UniProtKB/TrEMBL annotation:
PANTHER family: DREV PROTEIN, PROTEIN-L-HISTIDINE N-PROS-METHYLTRANSFERASE. GO terms for molecular function: protein-L-histidine N-pros-methyltransferase activity. Keywords: Methyltransferase, Transferase. One of its GO terms (biological process) is methylation. The keyword Transferase applies. It comes from the Eukaryota. The lineage of its organism: Eukaryota, Metazoa, Ecdysozoa, Arthropoda, Crustacea. Signal peptide: none annotated. The keyword Plastid does not apply. Pfam families: DREV (PF05219). This is Methyltransferase-like protein 9.
């Protein structure tokens, strides 16, 4: 059996079904899993590397059971870096996190970002996150937050448009 180091894999979803594990591509998982709904979906340190994080969260919402749980891990302060698909390494879709400190960003995630996508925060915790370094430093010590959300209501795109319309109007006025 050949082993491939994890750093060479694209984003994957690992789904446990009846004590077996299936690995699905992050961009095709919703279609590949068919009509299956999940009680729990984990999205661990993925959203800051995802080109379309809001779209991914909408897909997850659609695949969760009505009382489903979403577990998200994010390095905060949030600094997205998309490794493939964009020339400037920035996502083509903003997650919408405001604030500069960890606390401000957790508050924004809990009160604006995830509720606008049909999720309610039930628990969260801060953890140390060690990541591979570079030429200047062997490794970096970052702050990771793990957030547990419960699926609430149906996501409605018009809710999101209304929520952000005031912000968009303010930007147009300032320009």
């Amino acid at each position: 059996m050949a082993c491939l180091p994890l750093r060479h894999l694209k984003f994957v979803f690992i789904i446990q079904i009846r004590k077996s594990i299936r690995v699905l591509d992050a961009w095709e998982w919703a279609q590949e899993s068919g009509e299956i709904e999940y009680d729990v979906v984990t999205c661990l340190n993925l959203l800051d590397r995802c080109d379309t994080p809001r779209s991914l969260l909408r897909e997850i919402h659609a695949k969760l059971t009505p009382s489903g749980t979403l577990v998200v891990a994010l390095v905060l302060p949030f600094n997205p870096y998309v490794e493939t698909g964009t020339a400037d390494n920035l996502p083509s879709e903003e997650l919408g996190i405001a604030g500069s400190t960890l606390e401000e960003q957790v508050n924004c995630l809990a009160t604006h970002v995830f509720p606008s996508l049909g999720y309610t925060l039930t628990r969260w915790s801060r953890l140390p996150y060690l990541c591979e370094g570079d030429l200047d430093q062997a490794f970096y010590w970052l702050s990771d937050v793990v957030l547990v959300f419960r699926k609430t209501g149906l996501y409605d795109e018009t809710d999101e448009e209304e929520e952000f319309s005031d912000a968009l109007e303010n930007i147009k006025v300032e320009l």
